[in-house]
């Protein structure tokens, strides 16, 4: 019977949220407040884009929190699928989803300690999904970069405006490189500033050699240099980078093996402790504050380890 009550409560909760959203949509005061908040977020995003363009012109680094968040959305490919998504909306969406998970866990009968783990697990999954997207974008760029250089070497800067050359090359490379090349061409045609379009394109992909190549292209464009020498030097640099990256990936694999060994030893020690105290380990870890705190610390350690391994793979 309790299962039917929970289902009924979930249905009532869903109906209540649906009625609230319909009421907001009909032009209520909350709708006006939401519209103002959304417009202010759009204004802040537009101002940030302007500041980013200005920092590119001044050759300044982008180190602010919102700029880093925007870079993560760009590097993971999320902005390519949702162009109007801003860092503010992303954070608000994650907070709303975490709050909803917490209350759903309470409705389903979980203790408040366990309910606190629900939004944490959701945000961890979101973080892992974003990092996975960033890794896929990075690897896809790495696989297409040498092909891009090969096609680019067939052109001279005197054969046409550089962004037009990039548009001619784009059909022969894969995503996400194709998308940023086309976007660079259209931005240069719209704004009339080819240099800023190239520098902005360099910031849309995380690969350091791609960023280095595009910045060198922008310099070559300013001084009307031939692309042949630039492409030849970039090929050598990319081969050296690939060799060093393979060495770092070998170190990352060794680190994963060591972490797995430490994890197995930790499990053995915890099982021995369970036999000594006579209390199930799951009861301690999942239903007491020290246990939940220990799980949180372990999760943070694993997260920091994963981050360092990713840095080795760059």
Briefly say what this structure is.
The protein has 314 residues and is an all-alpha fold. It is flat, with a radius of gyration of 25 Å.
Describe the structure in your own words:
The protein is mainly alpha-helical and 314 residues long. 82% of the residues lie in helices and 0% in strands. It is built from 13 helices and no strands. The protein has helices spanning 2-25, 29-57, 65-75, 78-81, 87-107, 112-152, 162-169, 177-191, 194-202, 208-222, 227-277, 281-287, 289-312. α5 (87-107) runs antiparallel to α6 (112-152) and α6 packs antiparallel against α11. The protein is flat and about 75 Å long.
Task: Offer a few descriptive terms.
82% helix; 314 residues; flat; 13 helices
Layout of secondary structure:
Layout: H1 2-25, H2 29-57, H3 65-75, H4 78-81, H5 87-107, H6 112-152, H7 162-169, H8 177-191, H9 194-202, H10 208-222, H11 227-277, H12 281-287, H13 289-312
Helix pairs in contact: 5-6, 6-11, 7-8, 8-9, 9-10, 10-11, 12-13
* Main sheet makeup: none
Rg, nearest Å: 25 Å
Describe the global form. flat
Amino-to-carboxy terminus distance: 55 Å
Describe the oligomeric state of these chains in a short phrase: single chain
Helix content: over 70%
Order of SSEs, N→C? HHHHHHHHHHHHH
Beta-sheet strand percentage? under 5%
Provide mean pLDDT, rounded.
77
What is the count of DSSP helices, taking H or I runs of 4+ residues? 13
Class by helix and strand content? mainly alpha
How many beta strands in the DSSP annotation?
0
Low-confidence stretches: none
